[in-house]
């Protein structure tokens, strides 16, 4: 099984293991277990082994290959990879013109010595929270193959949770990194909006789109984020931070397992005050509206030209978004500005907020629903209940893994004001060291 990114890089730089051996180990692990999980859409074996050989050549010549020397990784299937079509999870794009250059995030990781091994499954055009894909199939949760991995970056989360890769990249518009990270039991980051490079990433909603990593540890999360940002993170100390828990909207509809796990987490942090965000339901509705409107407008030419090429579940939501009146979108934008101002005021009195990521554990594939206000609603559209109001304000959020609930992962959101990403990493690393948070990697993802 693949280890932590930082540990692999140290071993490769010291010559204790070759980058080619690590790339081959990742390829072999993917071939051994992905048939049960369906996280990988393309295995880039030739490229991976060539990149790894270059790392080994540098080591042999006494040249430092970089802080991610020989670390294998994968990317959600919406990052440009030179010579390949960027599918964005859409069957109609399997034969799209190939990208001419790699996405900027891949360029930076390659310069740091990382080795690209695979592209990873997602909801079509990143519109969903489930990774149920009409072309590439459903990604299964490594902890229980009868359950969803979450989405839209489900392949990225599942690949780390199943021990295929030490880290992966995904994208988050309304929760698409944090939800699968939570449901699969790994670390995930939604950075401050605009903090990480989006060049060469297939867009969905410009107002909210961000990229971020999935990892096995808080330390790796910080390491990789610093490389993506092209500057090391100055994390500093995590003492004397004022922390509060989110109540109201974020305390409702919790399944018993999540309610208990989150309460225990908060108790171990001390006597936390409770804060309620203003007009959260309206913020989520406005995020839904802006997502639908921007996504529908972006895809409108293809909706007119080839509607049958879309997954019907995606197509119908995009058509509805394209039909929204401009006045409704402008109203949502006005509220967007007001809402961010209100959250800025809250962060004048606290440094970090904490909340659950989802209402509970991963839903079953055969019954993909969650319960909101006592009613079953589709998981694909509603798992973002607690994540969408935070994207709406552009906040940085870490999805951190709580202890398992009857063998199934749960996650907590660590939330800060814009620009406080490094502070969040310091806090997360401290909690990981204290044993309050820990990733759950599945040794043998072969549940019945």
Question: Could you give a quick summary of the protein structure above?
Answer:
With 448 residues, the chain is α+β, with helices and mostly antiparallel strands. The chain has two domains: 224 residues, Amidase signature (AS) domain (Amidase signature (AS) enzymes, Alpha-Beta Complex); 174 residues, Amidase signature (AS) domain (Amidase signature (AS) enzymes, Alpha-Beta Complex). The protein has 14 helices and 17 strands.
Features:
38% helix; Amidase signature (AS) enzymes; alpha+beta; 14 helices; 448 residues; 2 domains; globular
Q: Give a short account of the largest sheet.
A: 11 strands, mixed
Oligomer: single chain
Radius of gyration: 20 Å
Q: CATH superfamily assignment of the largest domain?
A: Amidase signature (AS) domain
Low-confidence stretches: none
Domain count:
2
How do the strands of the widest beta sheet line up side by side?
1-3-2-8-10-9-16-17-13-11-12
Average pLDDT across residues? Answer: 96
Number of helices: 14
How much of the polypeptide forms β-strand, as a percent range? Answer: 15-25%
Strand segment count = 17
- For the record, the CATH architecture of the largest domain stands as Alpha-Beta Complex
User: Helix/strand/pairing class, anyone?
Assistant: alpha+beta
């Amino acid at each position: 099984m693949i280890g932590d990114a930082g540990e692999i890089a140290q071993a490769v730089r010291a010559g204790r293991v070759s980058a080619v051996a690590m790339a081959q180990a990742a390829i072999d692990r993917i071939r051994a277990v992905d048939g049960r999980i369906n996280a990988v859409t393309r295995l880039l074996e030739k490229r991976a082994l060539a990149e790894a050989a270059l790392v080994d050549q540098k080591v042999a010549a006494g040249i430092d290959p970089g802080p991610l020397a020989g670390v294998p990784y994968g990317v959600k299937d919406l990052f440009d990879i030179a010579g390949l079509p960027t599918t964005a999870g859409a069957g109609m794009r399997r034969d799209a013109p190939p990208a001419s250059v790699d996405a900027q995030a891949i360029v930076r990781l390659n310069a740091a010595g990382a080795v690209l091994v695979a592209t990873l499954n997602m909801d079509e055009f990143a519109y969903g929270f489930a990774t149920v894909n009409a072309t590439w199939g459903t990604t299964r949760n490594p902890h229980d193959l009868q359950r969803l991995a979450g989405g839209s970056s489900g392949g990225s989360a599942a690949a780390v949770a199943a021990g295929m890769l030490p880290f992966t990249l995904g994208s988050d518009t309304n929760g698409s990194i944090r939800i699968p990270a939570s449901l699969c039991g790994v670390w995930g980051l939604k950075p401050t909006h605009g903090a990480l490079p989006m060049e060469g990433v297939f867009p969905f909603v410009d107002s909210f789109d961000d990229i971020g990593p999935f990892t096995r540890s808080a330390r790796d999360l910080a390491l990789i984020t610093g490389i993506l940002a092209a500057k090391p993170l100055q994390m500093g100390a995590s003492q004397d931070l004022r922390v509060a828990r989110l109540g109201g909207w974020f305390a409702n509809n919790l399944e018993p397992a999540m309610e208990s796990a989150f309460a225990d987490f908060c108790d171990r942090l001390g006597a936390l005050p409770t804060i309620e965000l203003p007009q959260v339901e309206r913020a989520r509705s406005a995020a839904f509206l802006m997502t639908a409107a921007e996504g529908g407008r972006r895809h409108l030419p293809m909706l007119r030209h080839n509607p049958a090429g879309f997954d019907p579940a995606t197509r119908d939501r995009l058509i509805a978004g394209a039909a929204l009146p401009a006045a409704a979108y402008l109203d949502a934008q006005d509220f967007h500005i007001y809402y961010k101002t209100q959250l800025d005021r809250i962060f004048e009195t606290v440094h970090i907020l904490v909340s659950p990521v989802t209402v509970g554990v991963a839903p079953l594939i055969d019954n993909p629903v969650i319960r909101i206000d006592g009613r079953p609603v589709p998981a694909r559209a509603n798992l973002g209940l607690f994540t969408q109001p935070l994207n709406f304000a552009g906040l940085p959020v870490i999805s951190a893994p709580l202890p398992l609930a009857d063998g199934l992962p749960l996650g907590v959101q660590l939330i800060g004001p814009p620009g406080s990403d490094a502070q969040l990493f310091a806090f997360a690393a401290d909690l990981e060291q204290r044993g309050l948070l820990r990733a759950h990697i599945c040794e043998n993802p072969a549940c019945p």
